[in-house]
Amino acid sequence: MAGSKKDEWNYHPDLPLRDKSLFGNIKSPVFIAKWLFKNWLSISEFVLLAVVSVVLWFFCYPSLESVKVFSFGWIFQILTINFFVMFAFAGGLHWYFYILRGQDKKLKFDHRDQTKNNRNFLFSDQVKDNMFWTLTSGVLNLTFFQSITMWLMANGYIPLVTFHTFSVGFILWFFLGFIYIPIWAALHFYWIHRFLHIPFMYKRFHSLHHRNINIGPWSGMSMHPIESFLYISSVCIHWIILAHPIHLIFHLLWLGPGASMSHTGYEDLLVRDKKKLSLGTFYHQLHHRYYECNYGNQEMPWDRWFGTFHDGSIEATQETRTRKKKMYS
């Protein structure tokens, strides 16, 4: 059995990591049923972000009718909402796990706390640095893509489905959208991520995000503006495929606040010592530790198919380090 250095981590799941890829088990009806139940019929990141997207559309964001003409008012409204939503998710998670220490270090991957007195970060403070990039570069790019896409929807330049076309087909497509968006986002993220790890791109742009070896909620969207632009461009799929504004909002939440959840540094939220909400994955934690591996996520097979998978073993670490030397030689 592949080994692991136990003392490198405060906590890690059973190693080597198992294949949780949806496409790797696509022929198994039982696996598909379990995947759907776990993600959509129980408390999950999927359900939480879907509910928030519905609330934001009906009660917070401007209507399509009001965004047909570009104006400062409605764009600033979107910017303000995105700022506070991002602050609520990342700030709330940081407050609970790192200030209140709601579950101490139970299920925390890394031993260490967030870095202070480190000149690699703005203000010599990891959290303040991450907050700056998240609430500037991240929020501005989220707002840019949302504003452009809503304007295109409002003016009929891209395919749009609305509640006025309510039918069985609408219901099926409406709910299907919540399933295909994370799958598409994962595919887009993998290839954009690989592109950002080309030495030229990495040194100039992606290295800013990778200063966060020990990640926290504010790390998820802490990116250079060029990187966050490329990352959030995933929502351009709605310029081609039929969508409702709620799909767009869900997609943006998945990329923004969802990144804060996946970068929490903890595997799950515990309530009375029981796992209640999946958050970060050891899969992506390995990427932040070893860089040239696990560019995608564990639900998709891309890393396994293209030879960049790290299963948490010592052997995989050696392979990753060899690959990194070749890339930068």
Structural class: mainly alpha
Q: Considering DSSP H and I runs of 4 or more, what fraction of the residues is helical?
A: 40-55%
Number of domains: 1
Report the end-to-end length measured between terminal Cα atoms.
32 Å
Q: List the total number of helices.
A: 12
Strand residue percentage = under 5%
Mean pLDDT, to the nearest integer, reads: 91
**Strand order across the biggest sheet?**
1-2
How many strands in all? 2
Note down, in words, how this protein is organized.
With 329 residues, the chain is mainly α. It contains 12 helices and 2 strands; from the N terminus they run αααααααααββααα. The protein is 54% helix and 3% strand. It has one domain. The mean pLDDT is 91.
Keywords:
329 residues, 12 helices, 54% helix, mainly alpha, two-stranded antiparallel ribbon
Structure in a nutshell:
By secondary structure, the chain is mainly alpha-helical. The protein has twelve helices and two strands.
Per-chain topology:
Elements: H1 29-40, H2 45-59, H3 72-99, H4 126-154, H5 168-196, H6 199-210, H7 225-232, H8 245-255, H9 257-262, E1 268-271, E2 274-278, H10 282-290, H11 302-305, H12 314-327
Antiparallel strand pairs: 1-2
